[in-house]
Amino acid sequence: MAASSENKPELAGSQEEKKIEFNALKSCAAFTVPDTNSFGGTFRDYNNAQTERQKSVEEFYRLQHINQTYDFVKRMREEYGKLNKAEMSIWECCELLNEVVDDSDPDIDEPQIEHLLQSAEAMRKDYPDEDWLHLTALVHDLGKVLHHSKFGGLPQWAVVGDTFPVGCAFSESIVHHKYFKENPDNNNPKYNTKLGVYSEGCGLNNVYMSFGHDDYMYLVAKENGTTLPSAGLFIIRYHSFYPLHREGAYKYLMNKEDEENLKWLQIFNKYDLYSKSNVRVDVEKVKPYYMSLIKKYFPEKLKW
């Protein structure tokens, strides 16, 4: 896989000035993390499987961990990288996503467009001048249309859930790690070492991630010529890579560009995870703003 060549968000001045400006941007956030998710429970609680929702989430991860192998990921990237499933606009895809509920998420079971707008509006409030962040929040989960019948109705374990590298050892920080014992790669000496098929510092762009909506939406955006900065594409591609941005796993695979973009992902993550609530967004009221951003950063129609 070729190295990334997308532009980064520009911060003027010296490296030290950029660091100060970035930290100031980060500290201006006013978003308050709620105490409970939309079910009234603790966010990302995967260990207290007392509800039917939590039990179904665990079963989802069992299937995902068994089936996401290096060979499977390569086949799926080749097939879905053709982008020959549909042709539609970003907003049309947002509306299509109304029919999808994420079985891997213990924090919400509402249609996905609600979550997209909650995340985007929270970021818009705290970072009014970073419109690329607002749009990134809106589009980051659009790859979940892979579960829709129009895209072949892929099983949820091939669409959603936390992501992780394949082709090297599975980190114990991955949720429900125990189920990897049934993954064929776990017993393959080519894939079960720390580095596996990779080299230290090779860059995440050269690493195969478990296949799903993150990587698919990244491919859609990049191949359709989006002008989002590289940090926006990094967020789209790795926002479900919780072992990295929550637990610090796999950092030895990162390069300098990854390290810079990770800062933006860690800002984004709070809005992605903790904006899931029962507070509704007036879609028609905010739609004109997001349509203007879509026009700025994406073509009118995209190949999916």
Automatic annotation (TrEMBL):
Protein name: Inositol oxygenase
GO BP annotations listed: inositol catabolic process; L-ascorbic acid biosynthetic process
PANTHER family reported for this sequence: INOSITOL OXYGENASE 1, MYOINOSITOL OXYGENASE
Main location: cytoplasm
Keywords: Ascorbate biosynthesis, Cytoplasm, Iron, Metal-binding, Oxidoreductase
InterPro entries named in the record: Inositol_oxygenase
Listed Gene3D superfamilies: Hypothetical protein af1432 (1.10.3210.10)
Keyword Oxidoreductase: yes
Location in the cell: Cytoplasm
Manner of cofactor binding, per the entry note: Binds 2 iron ions per subunit.
UniProt binding sites for Fe cation: 115, 140-141, 213, 239, 272
